[in-house]
Design goal:
Layout (H helix, E strand, L loop, with lengths): L7 H25 L3 E3 L6 E3 H14 L2 H5 L2 E9 L3 E5 H8 L6 E12 L2 E10 L4 E11 L2 E9 L6 H6 L3
Parallel strand pairs: 3-8
Antiparallel strand pairs: 1-2, 3-4, 5-6, 6-7, 7-8
Length: 166
Amino acid sequence: MGGTTISRRNLLQAGAVAMAGAGVLRAATALACGGAAPAAGKGSSMTKEEIIRRYYAGWEKKDWAAIDSLLGDSFTFTSPNHDDHINKNAFKARCWSQADWIDRFELENVVGDGDQVFVKILCHTKNGKSFRNIEYFRFKDGKVEAIEVYFGGDLGFPSAASKGHR
Protein backbone atom coordinates (compact mmCIF):
# COMPACT_ATOMS: atom_id res chain seq x y z
CA MET A 1 0.00 0.00 0.00
CA GLY A 2 1.54 3.32 -1.10
CA GLY A 3 1.36 6.28 1.18
CA THR A 4 2.08 9.94 1.33
CA THR A 5 4.75 11.19 3.65
CA ILE A 6 3.81 14.22 5.73
CA SER A 7 6.06 16.10 8.07
CA ARG A 8 5.17 16.52 11.75
CA ARG A 9 5.04 20.29 11.22
CA ASN A 10 2.48 19.97 8.41
CA LEU A 11 0.52 17.43 10.41
CA LEU A 12 0.40 19.73 13.43
CA GLN A 13 -0.62 22.68 11.24
CA ALA A 14 -3.39 20.63 9.64
CA GLY A 15 -4.57 19.53 13.07
CA ALA A 16 -4.59 23.10 14.33
CA VAL A 17 -6.62 24.23 11.32
CA ALA A 18 -9.09 21.36 11.82
CA MET A 19 -9.48 22.20 15.51
CA ALA A 20 -10.00 25.89 14.74
CA GLY A 21 -12.60 24.98 12.12
CA ALA A 22 -14.41 22.72 14.57
CA GLY A 23 -14.41 25.53 17.14
CA VAL A 24 -15.90 27.97 14.62
CA LEU A 25 -18.58 25.47 13.63
CA ARG A 26 -19.41 24.79 17.29
CA ALA A 27 -19.62 28.52 18.02
CA ALA A 28 -21.73 29.17 14.91
CA THR A 29 -24.10 26.36 15.87
CA ALA A 30 -24.44 27.70 19.41
CA LEU A 31 -25.01 31.22 18.11
CA ALA A 32 -27.55 30.16 15.52
CA CYS A 33 -29.31 27.92 18.01
CA GLY A 34 -29.85 30.65 20.53
CA GLY A 35 -26.62 31.69 22.25
CA ALA A 36 -28.60 34.27 24.20
CA ALA A 37 -27.42 37.74 25.01
CA PRO A 38 -29.30 40.10 27.26
CA ALA A 39 -31.62 42.09 25.07
CA ALA A 40 -31.49 45.71 24.17
CA GLY A 41 -34.98 45.94 25.65
CA LYS A 42 -35.97 45.42 29.26
CA GLY A 43 -37.13 42.00 30.40
CA SER A 44 -36.48 40.05 27.19
CA SER A 45 -33.53 38.34 25.61
CA MET A 46 -32.32 38.08 22.05
CA THR A 47 -29.51 36.05 20.60
CA LYS A 48 -26.60 37.97 19.17
CA GLU A 49 -27.72 36.91 15.72
CA GLU A 50 -31.18 38.38 16.39
CA ILE A 51 -29.58 41.65 17.50
CA ILE A 52 -27.47 41.71 14.34
CA ARG A 53 -30.46 40.97 12.12
CA ARG A 54 -32.41 43.80 13.80
CA TYR A 55 -29.45 46.10 13.23
CA TYR A 56 -29.48 45.46 9.48
CA ALA A 57 -33.30 45.64 9.37
CA GLY A 58 -33.03 49.12 10.89
CA TRP A 59 -30.85 50.19 7.94
CA GLU A 60 -33.32 48.67 5.46
CA LYS A 61 -36.28 50.40 7.13
CA LYS A 62 -34.37 53.69 7.59
CA ASP A 63 -35.14 53.49 11.33
CA TRP A 64 -32.31 55.12 13.32
CA ALA A 65 -34.18 54.66 16.63
CA ALA A 66 -34.18 50.87 16.11
CA ILE A 67 -30.44 50.88 15.43
CA ASP A 68 -29.66 53.27 18.28
CA SER A 69 -31.50 51.00 20.75
CA LEU A 70 -29.06 48.18 19.90
CA LEU A 71 -25.87 50.22 20.31
CA GLY A 72 -24.17 50.66 23.67
CA ASP A 73 -23.40 54.08 25.12
CA SER A 74 -19.67 53.61 24.47
CA PHE A 75 -20.23 52.29 20.91
CA THR A 76 -17.45 52.81 18.35
CA PHE A 77 -17.36 52.30 14.59
CA THR A 78 -14.30 51.68 12.42
CA SER A 79 -14.03 51.33 8.63
CA PRO A 80 -11.44 51.82 5.88
CA ASN A 81 -13.33 54.99 4.92
CA HIS A 82 -11.40 57.14 7.44
CA ASP A 83 -13.59 56.09 10.38
CA ASP A 84 -11.28 55.17 13.26
CA HIS A 85 -13.23 54.23 16.39
CA ILE A 86 -15.71 57.07 15.94
CA ASN A 87 -18.46 57.35 18.57
CA LYS A 88 -22.18 56.84 18.04
CA ASN A 89 -22.91 60.51 17.26
CA ALA A 90 -20.12 60.69 14.67
CA PHE A 91 -21.26 57.34 13.23
CA LYS A 92 -24.77 58.68 12.73
CA ALA A 93 -23.52 61.96 11.27
CA ARG A 94 -21.03 60.34 8.89
CA CYS A 95 -22.79 57.10 7.92
CA TRP A 96 -26.55 57.38 8.32
CA SER A 97 -27.03 59.07 4.93
CA GLN A 98 -25.90 55.75 3.39
CA ALA A 99 -29.32 54.33 4.39
CA ASP A 100 -30.85 56.23 1.47
CA TRP A 101 -28.93 53.99 -0.95
CA ILE A 102 -29.78 50.65 0.72
CA ASP A 103 -32.45 48.34 -0.61
CA ARG A 104 -31.70 45.22 1.41
CA PHE A 105 -29.07 43.06 3.06
CA GLU A 106 -28.39 39.36 2.81
CA LEU A 107 -26.53 37.96 5.79
CA GLU A 108 -24.49 35.25 4.12
CA ASN A 109 -22.57 34.10 7.21
CA VAL A 110 -22.91 34.87 10.91
CA VAL A 111 -20.15 33.25 12.95
CA GLY A 112 -19.03 34.05 16.45
CA ASP A 113 -17.89 33.01 19.84
CA GLY A 114 -18.81 34.73 23.08
CA ASP A 115 -19.09 38.47 22.59
CA GLN A 116 -17.46 38.51 19.14
CA VAL A 117 -19.32 37.88 15.88
CA PHE A 118 -18.23 38.14 12.25
CA VAL A 119 -20.91 38.79 9.62
CA LYS A 120 -20.47 38.46 5.86
CA ILE A 121 -23.05 40.66 4.20
CA LEU A 122 -24.24 41.20 0.66
CA CYS A 123 -25.77 44.66 0.38
CA HIS A 124 -28.12 45.42 -2.50
CA THR A 125 -28.49 49.09 -3.38
CA LYS A 126 -31.66 50.72 -4.69
CA ASN A 127 -30.26 50.95 -8.23
CA GLY A 128 -29.46 47.25 -8.54
CA LYS A 129 -25.77 47.31 -7.59
CA SER A 130 -24.32 45.21 -4.77
CA PHE A 131 -21.20 44.72 -2.68
CA ARG A 132 -19.92 42.41 0.04
CA ASN A 133 -18.27 43.28 3.34
CA ILE A 134 -17.16 41.51 6.48
CA GLU A 135 -18.30 43.22 9.65
CA TYR A 136 -16.98 42.39 13.11
CA PHE A 137 -19.39 42.99 16.00
CA ARG A 138 -18.28 43.11 19.61
CA PHE A 139 -20.94 42.95 22.33
CA LYS A 140 -21.02 44.15 25.93
CA ASP A 141 -23.97 43.82 28.31
CA GLY A 142 -26.30 42.74 25.50
CA LYS A 143 -25.60 45.70 23.25
CA VAL A 144 -23.31 46.26 20.29
CA GLU A 145 -20.17 47.86 21.73
CA ALA A 146 -18.18 48.11 18.49
CA ILE A 147 -18.40 47.42 14.77
CA GLU A 148 -15.37 47.15 12.51
CA VAL A 149 -16.05 47.00 8.77
CA TYR A 150 -13.72 45.35 6.26
CA PHE A 151 -14.63 46.37 2.72
CA GLY A 152 -14.88 43.68 0.08
CA GLY A 153 -13.40 46.06 -2.48
CA ASP A 154 -13.03 49.75 -3.15
CA LEU A 155 -16.80 50.10 -3.47
CA GLY A 156 -17.61 48.78 0.01
CA PHE A 157 -20.37 51.16 1.00
CA PRO A 158 -23.80 51.87 -0.55
CA SER A 159 -23.25 55.24 -2.22
CA ALA A 160 -19.86 54.20 -3.66
CA ALA A 161 -21.29 50.97 -5.09
CA SER A 162 -24.31 52.81 -6.47
CA LYS A 163 -22.24 55.49 -8.16
CA GLY A 164 -19.54 53.05 -9.25
CA HIS A 165 -16.73 54.92 -7.50
CA ARG A 166 -15.66 56.17 -4.09
